[in-house]
């Protein structure tokens, strides 16, 4: 079967969603990046669970879900009034907050501590949310569970956390595997590496079991993607809506070809290392565009500005007519799984598993 490719330049209002591939529910839904991916792949997304009121407002405004639950997953998973549709899901989706494991964060220093993302949210121990999500899967028993997380989860001491994830999925009745995927090889104009845990319910797994190694069997699933990376010149839009401050413009003026970030300039010109290292340059011919973070400090090498609205949407494969409400586009897109990334995975899961059940 020839695989469908999804356009990174699109609009919600111009897209027909077939809703013929199965039912999905999304947790930690943010503004609905993964939701839009499932919709693009032909799934019917019934609704979401989200703790942040501003994210929920954006989600409900753009997606008009049948079911929406604004509450912590710790209380949501214990609800006794969930509708029957949620006990008959094809996919349970979730992106448990992951900053405790990010390679750019404090990692082990933050493990076990209560943190909050934004003012107004309840404090939570972030590194236990994945297990709350697995508890929900155990309760709802969807056919497939898909969970996205940061690359740092596979590094160093966090590997023991991954082993615990495998144990909990096993106790919940699932065979789980994980893949480290790069969005830039999946039709997304952004270098974004994320680990995806994909679990198939044990009673459905037998027809798909293959040798994973000498000792174990696992359901076969091909998630190898090798699309050609998209250069920034393909998504460049020549206007400015996020200019540099006067101070940052003075640093930008001192750049030389080959500088990777503002830290190079500060170190070379002012002998100030470790300053502005997150402000990275984007070159027009770059074929591996910098990841969008919630603050997005990436600056064009040829123009004194940050990525503009159109470039942010296309890098994040967000629709141009998405209503961000009062959220900064870079924040919401940076928090989201790129819709095209999710769509490519969902399509493979449907073609290789769900369509055969």
Structural class: alpha/beta
Across the major sheet, the strand order is 3-2-1-4-7-9-8
The CATH superfamily of the domain at 12-228 and 334-356 is: Vaccinia Virus protein VP39
Number of E-state strands: 13
Name of the CATH architecture of the domain at 12-228 and 334-356: 3-Layer(aba) Sandwich
Task: Point out poorly predicted stretches.
Answer: 102-115
The CATH class of the domain at 12-228 and 334-356, by name, is Alpha Beta
Number of H/I helices: 11
Alpha carbon gap, first and last residue: 17 Å
Helix content: 25-40%
Order of helices and strands: EHEHEHEEEHEHEEHEEHHEEHHH
Radius of gyration: 21 Å
| Net shape | globular
Protein architecture, described:
This protein has 357 residues and is of the alpha/beta class. It has a domain of 240 residues: Rossmann fold (3-Layer(aba) Sandwich). Helices cover 27% and strands 17% of the residues. The protein contains 11 helices and 13 strands. β1, α1 and β2 form a beta-alpha-beta unit. α1 crosses α11. It is globular and about 60 Å long.
Summed up:
By secondary structure, the protein is α/β, with parallel strands linked by helices.
Task: Throw out a few tags for this protein.
alpha/beta; seven-stranded mixed β-sheet; globular
Blueprint (SSEs and pairs):
Elements: E1 23-27, H1 33-40, E2 44-50, H2 53-63, E3 67-70, H3 73-76, E4 91-94, E5 114-115, E6 124-125, H4 129-140, E7 144-150, H5 159-172, E8 174-182, E9 193-201, H6 202-205, E10 209-211, E11 217-219, H7 246-252, H8 262-270, E12 281-282, E13 299-300, H9 309-315, H10 329-335, H11 339-352
Helix pairs in contact: 1-11, 4-5
């Amino acid at each position: 079967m020839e695989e469908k490719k999804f356009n990174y330049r699109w609009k919600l209002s111009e897209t027909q969603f077939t809703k013929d591939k199965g039912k999905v529910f999304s947790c930690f839904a943010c503004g609905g990046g993964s939701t839009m991916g499932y919709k693009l792949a032909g799934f019917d997304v019934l609704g979401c669970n989200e703790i942040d009121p501003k994210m929920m407002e954006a989600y409900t405004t753009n997606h008009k879900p049948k079911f929406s639950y604004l509450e912590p997953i710790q209380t949501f998973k214990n609800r006794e009034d969930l509708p029957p549709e949620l006990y008959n899901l094809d996919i349970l989706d979730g992106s448990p907050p992951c900053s405790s494991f990010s390679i750019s964060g404090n990692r082990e220093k933050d493990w076990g501590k209560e943190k909050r993302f934004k003012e107004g949210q309840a404090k939570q121990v972030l590194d236990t949310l994945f297990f709350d999500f697995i508890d929900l899967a155990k309760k709802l028993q969807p056919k497939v569970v898909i969970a996205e997380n940061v690359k740092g989860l596979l590094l160093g001491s966090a590997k023991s956390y991954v082993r615990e994830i495998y144990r909990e999925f096993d106790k919940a009745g699932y065979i789980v595997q994980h893949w480290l995927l790069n969005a830039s090889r999946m039709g997304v104009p952004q270098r974004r590496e994320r680990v995806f845990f994909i679990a198939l319910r044990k009673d459905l797994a037998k027809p798909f079991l293959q040798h994973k190694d000498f000792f174990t069997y696992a359901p076969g699933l091909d998630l190898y993607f090798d699309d050609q990376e998209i250069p920034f010149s393909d998504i460049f839009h020549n206007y400015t809506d996020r200019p540099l401050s006067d101070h940052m413009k003075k640093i930008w003026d001192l750049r030389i070809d080959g500088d990777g970030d503002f830290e190079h300039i500060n170190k070379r010109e002012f002998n100030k290392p470790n300053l502005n290292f997150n402000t990275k340059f984007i070159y027009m011919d770059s074929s591996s565009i910098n990841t969008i973070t919630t603050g997005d400090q990436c600056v064009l090498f040829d123009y004194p500005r940050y990525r503009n609205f159109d470039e942010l949407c296309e890098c994040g494969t967000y629709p141009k007519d998405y209503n961000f409400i009062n959220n900064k586009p870079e924040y919401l897109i940076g928090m989201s799984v790129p819709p095209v990334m999710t769509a490519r995975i969902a399509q493979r899961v449907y073609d290789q598993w769900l369509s055969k059940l």
